[in-house]
Amino acid sequence: MSPVADYDVVVVGAGPGGAESARTAAAAGLRTLVVEEHPAVGIPSHCTGKLSFHAFEEFDVPRSLAHTAVSAAALYSPGGAVVRVRRPTVDSYAVDRIAFDQWVARRAQEAGAELVTGVRVTEAARVNGTVMVRGARAGRSFEARARVLIDAEGSAPRLLGMLGLAIPRRHALGLQYQMRGVRGVEQDTPEMFFGADVAPGFFAWLMPVGGDTCRIGLAVDPRRTARPPVWYLERLLVRHPAMRGRMAGAVIERKVGGRIPLLTGRAPASADGVLVVGDAAGMVKATSGGGIYYAMTAGGIAGRAAGRYVGGDRTATDAYEHEWRSRIGREVAFTAFGRRAINRMTDRELDAIMRAIAESPRLLAAIAGAGDTQFQSRLFGPLLRGLSVTAVRRPALAPLVLKALMSGMFAQM
Ligand SMILES: Cc1cc2nc3c(=O)[nH]c(=O)nc-3n(C[C@H](O)[C@H](O)[C@H](O)COP(=O)(O)OP(=O)(O)OC[C@H]3O[C@@H](n4cnc5c(N)ncnc54)[C@H](O)[C@@H]3O)c2cc1C
Fold it and tell me: What's the DSSP call for residue 48?
């Protein structure tokens, strides 16, 4: 006889992916438990908090959680060209990530999910048609069983291997300072800095979060440098031409670090009775590292799939895989394409492409018109067409565009 499960669904991790999974599952009437290792949800935060307007619309996120609204961007090429783009409408907001995570978790609880904090799940196994999780809380052992496990552990999942799923192994290492007293900040304009000297394998950023306070950070690909992110971040602040004159008197209020899954979104995110959401499944934009919206989107799909599975539909886990890929898989794949293309460029080549964009009103208009940082694949056609037209006047550009395309499609990183 099968043992009786304590819950229909156990969710490991109360980040946005886990909490949205739990909210959806509980709203579907499932007995839902969320287990979070930290004593308080959202703390510590390891994030810049840039969140697309799509998330605000789809998940009814209150505007009060936003510090600033973003409708423009300034991208600094390795050689100093600046691509300035402005959209007619808001693209995204910078949120208070701690308050945001707590809001998502509260919604899950309001829908009926039970939240247990301070428990790190260290073991998961299938036992006679249920999934058992085990951990410890204040020195005492903790155990729960459920029909479905939703793994939302974030970028360092420990349980996947125990459940026969692939563990993501590639990560960029991120570090960010929240700094007060930064000069020359435009509230609606985050800045991005590119170059092998600046942030090998990724990029650096400055995100305004109100007044003269900014989140300044970067991530590096450890396969491309042996130096830690702190080396690059300290250097960015004192040496980058677009940064150094603005830092006199600025103070660091907070330092956060974290891992960003890199090019790992192709592995299966489900097995019988197990659904994986968010960073744990590599559901991030490989170009920018953003993953909150995808984690929540997949969380909603997972919560509903869990309901079908508990109702006896054994194909629900496969259907989850299919559904998350049809909603956001294209973006995960396209941004991986973009990351491979960018990473194969030398600084000189990337500089030439960014300079061509910066100097072309047609290309800037294409980006402003089609650019949506949440759905970057929509930019591909207009950008490629614009670059092809520009390459007629600047023949040196053609081989670079071709190289970017080939690298995006075929490069092994
Ligand atoms: C420096 C940096 C900046 C970023 N900036 C942005 C940004 O601006 N915009 C954006 O969209 N994304 C950003 N991201 C990525 C974003 O943080 C993640 O994509 C997002 O948090 C993924 O949500 P998640 O629910 O999958 O995982 P997480 O938010 O990481 O949540 C996982 C939760 O599970 C808990 N947990 C893990 N293992 C266990 C366990 N075994 N037992 C119990 N609990 C466990 C963790 O403590 C955590 O609370 C950034 C990442 C970094 C590192």
Answer: -
